[in-house]
Amino acid sequence: MVERVSTVTHLLISSFWPILKAGLLITIPLTLITFILGLILGLLTAMARLSRMKVLDFIARFYVWIFRGTPLLVQLFILFYGLPSIKVTISPFTAAVIGFTLNMGAYNSEIIRAAILSIDKGQWEAAYAIGMTKRQAMRRIIIPQAARVSIPPLGNSFIGLVKDTSLAATITLTELFQKGQQIASVNYEPFWIYVEVAFIYLIFCTILTYLQGYVEKRFEKHVAK
Question: How many separate domains does the chain show?
Answer without folding.
Answer: 1
